[in-house]
Design goal:
heterodimer, A: mainly alpha, 3 strands, B: about 130 residues, Arc Repressor Mutant, subunit A
């Protein structure tokens, strides 16, 4: 059994409206969803047991607005379910960074936050292991001005250790705190700014 | 006592909605199915009639959560169909949810036992 030209028009109009309503989702998702709904309509209205008319099939799916609204709701539910997963947050921010300036900014701040936080934590641990050779070293003279962290080797002459034991609390407390704050910042940014454009 | 059919119905809708996720995962336990097959499976092996406009968005979320994976398969009907299959995480989630369901319904049945005894009494013994 074939679908009449009139029905075909109705189905095409429905799918076009659905595509339009889904525009804030990712393109690949939209194509997938529309193709699936199309296959569903074809399966219900043609084939061996054509029990349903086009109009009743479309009615069971709801209007394009209603159906798209449910996809958006599920999208938000998904986000809520995954929102505590650091991997998901990072992936979202990475994707976001490719889409907008705000995303790029959040991404840049995150990278700095994680790097400095991780680096401080590592230095704190190294200070515990090699207490006498780990530190923040500075060299200040007329010609050179340098500041560096190092661990292991003997510091060069003329270089002063600046923090001493302060590196221990700084590294072991401030490092993880910075790491955690960066993660909270990411979480907050994603929830605050990264939303579907036309979410009602 | 005045009945309030509307709120009972609403409650049933919520109840069905809440269990749909498990019902869909369970229907995929034996193997891959496409959307309409899932709907028909739910209809024939339980009397869970699922509104189509609800099932497809939910399937999309289950996919995004990594509980099911999808593949397009060509068919004799002339158009490809999108098949769903449980992932390892999906199987694990279904098992967990099934355990929760069993515990929950057992405690509910305990709690409801007095009501059920009331129902099964002969009508003549009903209190005035």
């Amino acid at each position: 059994m074939t679908v009449s030209a009139q029905s075909q028009k109705t189905v095409d109009a429905y799918l076009a409206a659905l595509r339009k309503q889904l525009r804030e989702l990712m393109d690949e998702d939209v194509n997938d969803i529309v193709a699936e709904i199309r296959a569903h309509i074809l399966d219900k209205t043609s084939g061996e047991t054509p029990g349903d008319s086009v109009s009743s099939t479309l009615a069971a799916l709801g209007t394009p607005e209603e159906l798209a609204g449910r996809y958006r709701t599920e999208e938000l539910l998904k986000r809520a379910q995954m929102s505590r997963s650091p991997a998901f947050i990072l992936r979202s921010i990475f994707r976001w960074a490719t889409l907008s300036v705000v995303g790029l900014l959040v991404f840049a701040i995150s990278v700095v936050g994680y790097l400095v936080g991780g680096w401080l934590s590592i230095l704190g641990v190294l200070k515990l292991i090699n207490p006498h050779t780990t530190g923040l070293y500075g060299e200040f003279s007329e010609h050179t001005w340098s500041l560096s962290f190092s661990s292991g080797g003997q510091p060069a002459a003329g270089v002063h250790e600046l923090l001493g034991w302060w590196l221990l609390p700084l590294g072991l407390i401030l490092g993880p705190v910075l790491f955690f704050l960066t993660f909270r910042f990411d979480l907050w940014s994603v929830h605050r700014f990264w939303r579907p454009r036309a979410w009602r | 006592m005045q009945q309030n059919p509307e709120s009972s119905e609403k409650w049933e809708v919520q109840l069905r909605k809440g269990s749909l996720e498990l019902a869909i995962l369970a229907s995929l336990w034996e193997g891959r199915l496409y959307g309409l097959e899932i709907l028909r499976h739910l209809e024939t092996s339980s009397d869970l009639i699922v509104v189509e406009g609800t099932a497809y968005p939910l399937l999309n979320r289950l996919r995004a959560l990594g509980l099911v994976e999808t593949e397009w398969v060509e068919s004799d009907s002339g158009h490809p169909r999108k098949y769903y299959r449980l992932t390892a995480a999906g199987r694990q989630r279904a098992m967990e949810m099934s355990g929760i369901w069993a515990r929950f319904s057992a405690s509910m049945n305990n709690l409801l036992a007095p009501l059920n005894r009331e129902k099964s009494k002969p009508t003549g013994e009903e209190k005035p």
